[in-house]
Write a structure and sequence with these properties.
The chain has 12 helices and 9 strands. By secondary structure, it is of the alpha/beta class. The longest helix is centred in the C-terminal third of the chain and has 21 residues, at about 220-240. Strands 1, 2, 3, 4, 5, 6, 7, 8 and 9 form a 9-stranded mixed β-sheet that branches. It has 2 domains: about 1-180, Alpha-Beta Complex (Spore Coat Polysaccharide Biosynthesis Protein SpsA, Chain A), CATH 3.90.550.10; about 190-310, no CATH class.
Length: about 300
C-alpha cells in the first residue's frame, strides 16, 4: 500500500473534495493538520487518519513529519483541495509500481488548474517515491524553508541522486491529479508578496540543503550550484524590475548562497546562454545596472548591504 500524506491548513471545504476523490483501496491516507486555527472535529471518516500539530510550520515540515511517521513501502503527497481525476486511474498507480519494482520514483502528469503540466515539474503533484530510496539517501525537506521552494528542493535532490546512481525516474504520460487554487490554503497564502520577498532566500536555503545531502552521499552537485548561482541572479534582476521594494530582501537572500559557495562560483564559468540569463535580458530596459553574474557575486561578497547602484 501507498502512504498518501495530505498537509492541511484551514481549508475544510478543500479537504472534503480531496478526500472524496481518493480510492481508499489504494492508499493509506493521513491528514496532517499544520496548526489550523480550529481543529477538525470528530467523528472522522474511518478510512483516513487525522494527526494534528499545534504549531504552524509549513508544508515542507508537515510532509516531512508524514514521511518520518509512516511505514508503507511507497509515499505520495496530495495538497488539500487538489483532487484525483479518477478512482480507477489510482488502481493503475499500483499496477505500474508492481510491474517495475526497481524504479525509485514514478511521475504522472497533472493539471495545473486547467492546463496540463509537464512531467518534469518540480512540484509534488503526481509523484510516488519508494520509501527505501528516500531513507537510504537521507532525502528530506529543508527545515529552514518550509513555505517556499520546499518541493523544488526535495525533488531536485531526488533527481540529482537518481541520475548519479543511474536508476532513472519513470515518467507516465497519464494525468492523475487536478490542482486547484485555494487562496486560504497552506501553500497559497500571501503568495505574490512572498514570491519577491522570500524567493532568493528560500532558493538559497533549499539548494544548500540539497548540496549537503549530495555531499553526504558522495554525489557531485557542481552543476546544481552553477545553475542556482544564475537562478538567484535572475530573481534579483526580476525583483529589481517588478517589485523593487523587496530588492534588499533579494540581496540578503542571495548572499546566503553566494557566501556558502563563493569558491565554487568564482572558479567556474557561468554560461551566458543559460535560460535564466536569457530571462534576465528581458528586463534590461527596466533596470539600470549591468547584467553580469560574476560582477554581482563579487559585489554581494564585498558589501553587507545593497549598494546604491542597484537602486538607481
Amino acid at each position: 500500500m501507498i502512504d498518501l500524506i495530505i498537509p492541511y491548513y484551514n481549508n475544510g471545504k478543500g479537504l472534503s473534495e480531496t478526500l472524496k476523490s481518493i480510492n481508499y483501496d489504494v492508499f493509506n491516507v493521513i491528514v496532517i493538520d499544520d496548526g489550523s486555527d480550529v481543529p477538525l472535529l470528530p467523528p472522522f471518516n474511518a478510512k483516513f487518519q487525522y494527526w494534528r500539530r499545534n504549531i504552524n510550520r509549513g508544508p515542507g515540515i508537515t510532509r516531512q513529519y508524514g514521511i518520518d511517521h509512516t511505514t508503507n513501502p511507497y509515499i505520495m503527497f496530495i495538497d488539500t483541495g487538489d483532487i484525483f481525476i479518477s478512482k480507477n486511474l489510482q488502481n493503475d498507480i499500483v499496477n505500474t509500481i508492481n510491474s517495475d519494482p526497481e524504479t525509485n520514483v514514478f511521475v504522472w502528469q497533472y493539471y495545473h488548474y486547467d492546463e496540463l503540466s509537464k512531467t518534469t515539474d518540480n512540484r509534488m503533484h503526481g509523484k510516488v517515491y519508494k520509501r527505501n530510496f528516500i531513507q537510504n539517501y537521507s532525502i528530506s525537506f529543508c527545515p529552514e524553508s518550509s513555505y517556499m521552494d520546499e518541493d523544488i528542493g526535495f525533488n531536485r535532490t531526488v533527481r540529482i541522486i537518481s541520475d548519479a546512481i543511474n536508476i532513472p525516474i519513470k515518467f507516465i504520460e497519464t494525468p492523475i491529479i487536478k490542482q486547484t487554487k485555494e487562496e486560504t490554503s497552506l501553500t497559497q497564502r500571501n503568495n505574490q508578496e512572498s514570491l519577491y520577498k522570500d524567493q532568493t532566500r528560500a532558493l538559497s536555503l533549499v539548494t544548500i540543503h540539497t548540496v549537503d545531502i549530495c555531499h553526504k552521499n558522495n554525489i557531485n552537485s557542481q552543476e546544481e550550484i552553477n545553475q542556482i548561482a544564475i537562478a538567484l541572479y535572475y530573481w534579483f534582476v526580476r525583483t529589481a524590475a517588478e517589485r523593487s521594494e523587496f530588492l534588499s530582501d533579494a540581496w540578503h537572500g542571495a548572499k546566503i548562497f553566494y557566501k556558502k559557495f563563493k569558491k565554487d562560483i568564482q572558479t567556474n564559468e557561468l554560461i551566458v546562454g543559460n535560460a535564466y540569463m536569457k530571462r534576465c535580458i528581458q528586463y534590461r530596459k527596466q533596470i539600470r545596472f549591468p547584467i553580469n553574474v560574476l560582477r554581482f557575486v563579487d559585489d554581494i561578497l564585498k558589501n553587507e548591504n545593497l549598494p546604491d547602484k542597484y537602486l538607481t
